[in-house]
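Action item from last week, closing it out:
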Amino acid sequence: MSPSWRHAPAWTAVVVALTAFVASLASWSSGGAAIDVPWAPTLGLRLHFTLDGLGALYGLLASGVGLLVFAYAASYMPWHLEHEGQSWREQWRFWPWMVLFMVAMLGLAVAQDLVLLFVLFDVTAICSYFLIGFDRDRPEARVAALMALVVTGVTAVAVLIAAVLLYTEHGTVSIPVLLAQPGGGTSTTVAAALLAVGALAKSAQVPLHFWLPRAMAAPTPVSAYLHSAAMVAAGVLVIGRVHPLLARSEAVLDALLGVGLASILVGGALALAKDELKQVLAHSTISQYGYVLTLYGIGGPAGAGAAALYVITHGIAKSALFMTAGAVTMATGEDRLSRVGGLRRQMPLLATASGVAAATLAALPLTLGFFKDELFFTAALGAAWPVRVAAVGAAALTFAYIGRFWMGLFLGPPRGTTHPVPRLLVAPIVVLAAVALFGGVLVEPFARLAGDAASTTHGAAVALRPAYHLDARPENVMALVAWALGGLGLAFPRGWRSTVRALATAGDRLGPRRAYGVLLTALDHLSGVLHRMEVRDLRNSIAAVLVPGGILAALGFAATPTAGAYVIGRIAPGDDLMIVAFLVLVMLAALAVAGARAHLHLVLALSVVGFALAAVYAFVGAPDVALVAVVVDTVTSLVFVAAVARLPRDLARPGGVPPAPRSRRRWRDPVVGAIGGLALFAVIWGSLSRPSVHQGIAAEHIRLAPQAHGQDVVTVILADFRGLDTLAEITVLAVAVVGVATLLRRGRLW
């Protein structure tokens, strides 16, 4: 393949991102768009997508930043593959997942259904798994990918549980309909808390933050996209989407506020302590999204507006800084602050562009970031005084760690040698810096986009009018104090460096990552125990199904009124007596199966069970089912006879893992059988004693059978109404037959 064709996947991805960005921008400019089609009508599920203000913000961010990151990756990935000793063909494992990542984020931005939100949540988790673990030969990449998948995938189940709770209480999972519902009970509060948990894990907020720094094992383009506009942004997107639901509980808002402030502190402190370039930025992401969470915890139009503008600014600045880290690593071969420096002379354009990005994140004037902190301070002034103090401290912390990052790269004496980097690696950073400077001069387009997003979050119109004010208003004073404190931190690092590093070490040893490792080890041990139990004895496998089923049935009956629920009917002479007789024969044959020791006796007793049940089907008016049962039992009996002919004459195992002690089986088997049998008996008796007053789908099937060109309802259901199910079952049966035939021929099918 010619070298030009090797870049085809990359530039195809760039074109897809550009198309998505233009379409999102055009749709938002024209007032939005919506798609609403049935998905699962019987459950009230719909494929409902709406490009409202919030969807436009995250859609433009995902596609716009994605466009620049994809262009950057087109130049970066060939070097990365060569550096890792991989073939250029490995890019085919990279680009499809990156594009799907963007598409999932776009869908998540405009989704208006909680179940759809959950599905797209999981799609982003799956994409991140393959992208973080792209360098599969590196153990740290595989561990990081698994950690991200486990934490974000497991906590995403909380979103599904929340959807079920809300559906139970309100009869819908449509987000607009749910937000329009007045009030809400305990279920709504619990659902809101569960939605928050799923979102917090996605946005890597304390204490579920530990997976994000490990995700830096991914290639730099993945890190740049994941941290700025994709996966991590998905969490705060969900909170912004369902915020009116969360706001119904003061406890939930207070929890968001507390977690946000903790994330700002923990992430910022760790960013100051880390030496690896991407690690500094990763912990910065934890801290920066803590800002957004804090603003959502404050609530109101001020909090919603500031959060929206903060997300925009962070996405622009953070993607540029991550790409800066990748370019520096490519140029110097180093990825630590302590090993680089003085790069402003060798890479002046990169130093200038990344300096603008750093200034944006530090909220310096003439950048878009100045206005994010102005709105942040305005929202904090409406909260209690501890929040105001924390806001100043948070801004000072940001100034310190981002200043340390940029100054460590580009100031000071040069260290080592540098190699030229492709222009395409620097160009996206320059574009993002230009956008940040444009926003610092003309903020109105960004304020309008953030206002539209905040209106969706707040549930009412929000107008943002950030501007420069050359006076002593509280916001300006808070900004000056934050810059002063941050500057002092940079000027006198000895005062905090040892303390911060000690806290970082303690957090690694005793923090949530340690708990994650312990839990994973315990689950692995439990899995091993259960596996050994299952392999040792088939009875254990059966008990693992019957006992939980019996317990669940008992709990269901305990929670359900049972007075008058069971009716003992009268047995009429004639067919009823024959049915009872055959059922007694089934019971006796089943007992014979349980007690059989010889192979032939076992097969014969099992055949009696099947044929007796076929007779019962015939007496209750289902001759077609009876005929199928006869055919199946005949074939099964022949297969069993052929199989047991190749087995030892005694059912006892000649070797291998010894069975459970006979003394244990004496009480275990009857107890398990009694639990499972009684539970099944109670369920069947309850169903037959009080048939449902609703005809259900059976009557509809009977009515439509002639229209399906059949008189036999069972045949019509199998061949027409459930044709795909039947085809799948036939496929499974065919695979099973091939497997049995292979076993009988000792591994040789032909």
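Closing note: The two ends are 41 Å apart (CA to CA).
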